[in-house]
Amino acid sequence: MRDYETIDSDSSLDISPNPLVRMILFIAGTFFLVIGMIGIVVRLLPTTPFLLLSAACYSKSSKRFHRWVMNNRLFGDYISNYIEGRGISLKMKSLTLMALWASILFSAFYIVDMFIIRILLLIIAVGVTVHILSLPTYVPSGGDEHDNKTGNVIRNR
Questions:
Q1: Do the domain assignments include residue 39?
Q2: In whole angstroms, how large is the CA radius of gyration of the chain?
Q3: Which domain holds residue 49?
Q4: Which of 97, 11, 92, 102 is nearest to 59 (CA)?
């Protein structure tokens, strides 16, 4: 069994003192987490923004769920690498850009009839592409294990 590094100590979280705000943020975090997890399977749905929103909502509402998201075996390293500025793997960049352009081009030429909306979709795709390419490319350090199936990095201690 692996000994996973704990991401983000509980003391750095700023949990809201208002119970109603915590409940709303918890529900929103769970909603975004479910959408993000669907995005892992359905490549046309973006994953990163929803997982980041989930982590942000949990950081203000639940130490336990924030810790769970940040240390999750499937996407915890992906989120923490992005948040901590280490970037995303080349494999993930490639998959993201292929899915982005496939869905945008399909939508622009087979679903959308209005020319201005087609142009808008292409401008959005270019903007997202520039953003993805501007992120650092994460390369695991020598002590880390790399899961070839998911593209995740498992940090060992």
A1: yes
A2: 17
A3: 1-86
A4: 11
